[in-house]
Design goal:
Elements lengths: L5 E8 L3 H12 L4 E5 L22 H14 L3 E4 L2 E8 L2 E6 L4 E9 L3 E3 L7 H4 L4 E2 L2 H4 L8 E5 L1 H11 L6 E4 L9 H9 L4 E2 L3 E7 L2 E7 L4 E3 L2 E5 L2 E3 L3 H5 L22 E3 L10 H19 L8
Parallel strand pairs: 1-2, 1-6, 2-3, 6-17, 8-15, 9-10, 9-15, 10-11
Antiparallel strand pairs: 4-5, 5-6, 7-16, 12-13, 13-14
Length: 307
């Protein structure tokens, strides 16, 4: 081991709810932990995190700030940086290289870096993202109650999102933004049953009035009133570290884990949006806590365990 590579029991990659929750618990278990965070969260412009018990509408920066303070309290070392490469030197020896050249070694690794959303190419979307434009009906559907909603996307993914939103509003339309609608008879029947129209024209821009979303303008000059936009284009892992380590992944790119959030690679764990399941902040925090418990148990020496 290089003299400049400090050894830790656990290295956590990602400082969102999953990573911070894991850091908190592992710190309470008195483990030596380093948490490395790029500082570029998926929900960077979300106006508030909904459904996080005890923290109604808390903004992501405050949630992360509180979490970082708690981790520091329990001795977790917080490092701002981006992990460039990670490799297994042995079953209990992982080497992490950061973009700035810093290196870390750890006996266990927890991947908690989440996903990135594919954005539609629509003028004005960046001005309303997190306020009137969203990617998660479960997280932000309540705020669309009785509003005029447009789902940007196509195929089964867009139809599923539109149907989910019928819990809160009946004024829903799907816009494919010039893409093929990709609808079979079943999907068309579902949309017709809920009176959800589909528009295939390219979208020129979102129209704002006094910084509030009012309508969507098509390239052919027509417009469609809307107050909320949900887009369903696609997602991809925020980093390729799981691939570097050889972790098994599903068809959507999520890292496959067991009930203890252990991946297919020994002593590598994953938690949060990067694993299959609901993409909720409170669920990610739960993932991190459960993963931390499993990591702790794996680090307890055999002489302190019962067979």
């Amino acid at each position: 081991m290089n003299d400049k590579e400090e050894r830790y029991e656990v290295a956590i990659v990602g400082g969102g709810p999953a990573g911070l929750s894991a850091g908190l618990w592992l710190g309470r278990y008195l483990h030596k932990v380093v948490l490395i965070d790029s500082g570029d969260p998926r929900n960077w412009e979300t106006r508030g995190v909904n459904g996080f018990l005890g923290h109604p509408g808390i903004v992501p920066a405050d949630l992360r700030g509180h979490g970082r303070d708690e981790c520091r309290k329990y001795g977790v070392e917080l490092v701002n940086g981006c992990v460039q490469t990670v490799r297994a030197e042995g079953e209990e020896d992982f080497s992490l290289l950061l973009a700035d050249g810093k290196r870390f070694r750890a006996a266990r690794v927890l991947l908690a870096f989440g996903l990135r959303d594919v954005w539609p190419d629509v003028e004005g979307l960046d001005h309303v993202y997190g306020d009137a434009a969203h990617v998660c009906p479960d997280c932000d559907g309540y705020e669309a109650k009785d509003r005029r909603v447009v789902v940007i996307g196509s195929g089964r993914r867009a139809v599923g999102m539109a149907l989910s939103l019928t819990t809160w509003t009946s004024e829903i339309a799907i816009c494919t933004n010039g893409a093929d609608p990709d609808l079979d008879d079943e999907l068309r029947g579902k949309l017709e049953g809920q009176r959800i129209p589909v528009y295939t024209e390219p979208i020129k821009k979102l129209h704002l009035r006094e910084w509030n979303l009012r309508s969507l303008h098509f390239a052919d000059g027509r417009s469609l009133g809307c107050e909320k936009v949900f887009f369903s284009i696609g997602q991809f892992p925020a980093d390729d570290l799981g691939k570097q380590l050889g972790c098994e992944r599903d068809h959507q790119g999520h890292i496959v884990v067991d009930d203890s959030y252990h991946t297919s690679v020994r002593n590598v764990f994953a938690a949060g949006d990067i694993v299959p399941g609901p993409q909720l902040a409170i669920a990610a925090a739960s993932d991190g806590a459960i993963a931390a418990l499993a990591i702790h148990k794996s680090l307890v020496p055999m002489e302190r365990r019962l067979s």
